[in-house]
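STRUCTURE:
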């Protein structure tokens, strides 16, 4: 039972990272109906940037994480303004392909700053643990869950109470109607990309806590794809719930690999994709996604 509870706690930490990255996917999709495959690039760029910023003695980990998120958000804003904005009105498929190219470019540049060595974000926890009742949990997972909870709460407050948040909700519902009411759809697109990039940077920073960052670190962001399929492409709540589900399931499989030994020697790597395939077959719109009704 202790092993089970510790695996769940570990999974909540992982799932919080997946949820933050998936929120970026969903925010961009809800505003523009584009799936941005540039999220892994923003994530690794954020991690590498924080690994350099944290070396400044007057910043520390939290300052470096916050500044890194802001700077990567500005990068996302610049990408939207210079690359995505001229593509408005073009086929969605073409824009999606461009985001793949952006991801490769951003990752290549970020990897150049990693070099042949590894980088560290110098978080204050490392692999230290804390006792929560009968279970032992790594402090970095506790910090990740708390930070993700605060960010999600602020994000939902932003969407509910701010003028830009309300504009983003209006655009998500109906772009043409929002435009007719004087909402700046272009500004919404820009803010969406900035938020998505900033969230990816924060998620990557906490994913890197206690571990080394090298050129093979970026695939962590790909686990957000099963998350958004499970939760629904247009559901913020779904991204959060699905992220936690995928993280917990992955940790449980890692803790009890013999239960799914038919998946190979490392089943925890495969299980999120297996979940994605099953969901696509059974429920193509995800657990919380909006089912589209086509009339003939």
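SEQUENCE:
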């Amino acid at each position: 039972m202790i092993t089970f509870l510790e695996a769940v706690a570990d999974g909540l930490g992982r799932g919080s990272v997946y949820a933050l990255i998936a929120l970026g996917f969903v925010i961009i999709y809800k505003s523009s109906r584009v799936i941005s495959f540039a999220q892994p690039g923003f994530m690794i760029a954020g991690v590498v940037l924080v690994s350099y910023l944290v070396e400044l003695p007057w910043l520390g980990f939290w300052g470096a994480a916050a500044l890194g998120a802001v700077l990567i958000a500005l990068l996302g804003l610049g990408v939207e303004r210079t690359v995505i904005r001229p593509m408005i009105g073009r086929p969605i498929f073409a824009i999606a392909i461009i985001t793949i190219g952006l991801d490769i470019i951003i990752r290549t540049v970020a990897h150049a700053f990693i070099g042949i060595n590894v980088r560290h974000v110098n978080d204050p926890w490392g692999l230290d643990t804390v006792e929560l009742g009968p279970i032992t949990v790594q402090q970095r997972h506790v910090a990740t869950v708390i930070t993700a909870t605060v960010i999600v709460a602020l994000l939902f407050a932003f969407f509910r109470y701010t003028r830009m948040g309300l504009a983003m909700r209006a655009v998500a519902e109906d772009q043409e109607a929002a435009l007719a009411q004087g909402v700046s759809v272009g500004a919404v697109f820009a803010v969406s990309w900035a938020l998505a990039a900033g969230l990816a940077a924060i998620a990557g920073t906490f994913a890197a806590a206690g571990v080394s960052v090298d050129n093979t670190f970026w695939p962590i962001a790909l686990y957000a794809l099963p998350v958004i399929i499970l939760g629904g492409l247009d559901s913020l709540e779904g991204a959060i719930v699905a992220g936690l589900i995928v993280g917990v399931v992955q940790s449980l499989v890692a803790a009890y690999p013999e239960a799914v030994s038919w998946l190979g020697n490392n089943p925890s790597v495969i299980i999120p994709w297996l979940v994605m395939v099953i969901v696509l077959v059974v429920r193509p719109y995800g657990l919380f996604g909006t089912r589209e009704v086509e009339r003939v």
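REMARK: The CA atoms of residues 10 and 141 lie 6 Å apart.
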